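Researcher: Batch entry, complex prediction.
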Amino acid sequence: MMRAPAVAIVGAAECDLGVTGRSILGLQAQAITRALADAGLPLRDVDGLATTGVSRFSTTQLAEYVGIQPSWVDSTFTGGGAFEMFVARAAQAIEAGQAEVVVVSFASNQRSARSRSLAGVLETHTPEAQFESPYGPLHPISHYAMAAAAYLHRYRATREQLAEVAIAAREWALLNPVAYRYGAGPLTVQDVLGAPVVSTPLTTGDCCLVTDGGGAVVLTSLDRARDLPRPPVRVLGYGEVSTNTSMAWPDDLATSGAAPAGRRAFAMAGLTPADVDVVEVYDSFTITVLLTLEALGFCGPGEASSFIQGGRIRPGGALPLNTSGGGLSYCHPGQFGVLLLVEAVRQLRGECADRQVPGAEIGLAHGTGGILSSHATVLLGVHR
Amino acid sequence: MSRSYPVPPPDEVTEGWWGATRQRRLVLQYCADCDRPQHPPRALCTACGATDHLGWRDASGEGIVDSCTVVERAPSPDFTPPYVVARVRLAEGPVLLTNVVDIAPYEVGIGDRVRLRWRDLPDGRALPVFGPASPRPEE
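Model: Structure tokens for the complex:
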């Protein structure tokens, strides 16, 4: 079994969120400088950089922009969950001595730039362009819609149960002043079910926001972390799996392929889901959360739709989930994974004010990319 | 629904599959080494890794709706909602992404038996789509 690395997250920050009118690189610079200030580290100490979504040459573009020549970079592109994979790779690079201070960052101005399309990005040389796009699926929404349809059908779960994911996310967002829906008031089942249908059974109420935003986290060795101002948030375990890129390839849409990622992370950390105090899972769509909770072992197959009821995942509940308000009500800049890490770190440091989970010591961040295509789990811990 | 959507041209791997659609034949790629079908066609067998003995066999055209969604917003001006995007599991095993047609969109359900239909493309190829397996009474 792989052992936990002696690596910690020592800085975390958001760039401006929402509708910023700013450029991608301008937002990236905000995220990076704020995260380094949080860490108490100067930019010149950064020798590792991981990012996506800047340009075709994302890491060299960003490295030049901020004026560094890193000895280690990673731009693995697996969709919005890539940032949980970056944590794993950064931890390995730090342990191998290839880098000492790694910044993992992302920023997007997709709402200001109106750069998001319901069709997704068509690459004409791919099999999907020949065999799937001609049928007009919304990408990624129709895949998650078919997963939701399969799930509801198999387990006789209801649309009302699914809506709880969005309602709980809103309850958390009402406690987070920088959330896009802060001040928007609570959400009801009728709000979610009565919202415009996008791709059945999903309405706009089931879909994540389209906003600008991003963030960064800073990683270094546990030894160096001990000299820094913030409590080190240790990387306790990680695991990942990549499963598919097309809508037709997965054998069973009612089950996420994420299970091996969670198994690997929990095994490395020597923990189980019962040990986790705060859960940050990628909520691209309401159904994503149900599938992920089951795949990670928080409940059994088909149980998540009832497991999340009764306030369990809301503020004050037994399983605090997506405490920022999530992609559904806080911020979704196209690739949300880095903000899962930022929120987990803040919760473990006890910095979350009204939405703070009391005494949280173990946090989980789980990224999902593409159309349930890639899955990566990170377990984090702090001694306070 | 999809009248003018530009379907990319085949490549050297997929030309046999698209060529068959010109004769309104739905084929599946089979590996002669391990006798397993796969879709979409590839330059290797994902079951055994073989590259040499991949060929085409006619599919029955029978399938079952594995999952489906009614699309209510157009991904591009080529499409006019509402229409059904579905995963159809063919009798031979592979799943195809497709449309279910000749039925009201909200009447399509998981587990429905469906049968092959064709939608013509301007260049003589055709897209396999699916409709109800048994004729339904006029509504």
